[in-house]
Amino acid sequence: AQDIGFPSIFLFSDPSAGYFGDLWFKGNPEYERVNPSMEGLAPEFGTFTYPSTVSNEGASTFITIGDISVQADTMSFTISSSLLADGFPDTSLHIGLVYDFDNDGVQEIAGGQESIWVAQESDITIRNDFYQPVGAVYDWSVIYIDQVLHLAINEVSNGSNTKILFFQWQADEQTFQWVQDTIIASNNVLVMSNSTGSPVFITDAIYQVQTVVINDDGTVDSLNSRPWASAADLNLDGEAEYLYIDYQLVDTPNFYGTLEAKHMNGVT
């Protein structure tokens, strides 16, 4: 195993230097010498071990290589990232949306491909199927209809149209119930929410690459050409602010950017 951050070519150097020929296995006395707290345990490499898994610039990779077995013809180990929840990513789930529809502190996870299902974040293996699409599903969103939260699913219909289906969460049954659907003459529809009325359907291509917010007073703010942007009403004044990360110091070790918040009015 070679130290991800600090490779070395010196044959008899301290193992903390990370010589590429070092043999790491459970019971290796050299590993226990430089990591005394791991004596008797399976070797593990992370941010604070020797060798470590930090990058060449000294920034954390959030990767842990652990559970390294004893030396044998076949050995095993695990690789994990502290940035990922256990079991994720799992592309086979085709997760479309995660949201707490009933505000109980537990997220509902909706996904699927041939059959659309919903599960609780506490146990994603228990899934309730609630819809079988005929066409491909290409977008999921949380929408208000008359001040009631709904799940909206965009499904391709007849090749060039979109069937947008609205479902309401049923807390007792732990599933969604179909409420209504509509057909839009476009295969690329953006559904926007208006908490006091009906949803708005956007088909113009220009709005597909913009962040668009309808304020309480009816004015519309838009934002484009800004990577990693999100919109939110931070001070609850009915007008949106946008959040973005400024990457001015990308070459500085351990620098993750500066989170900025600015008013959207007048910003394009």
UniProtKB/TrEMBL annotation:
Native source organism of the sequence: marine metagenome
Protein name: VCBS repeat-containing protein
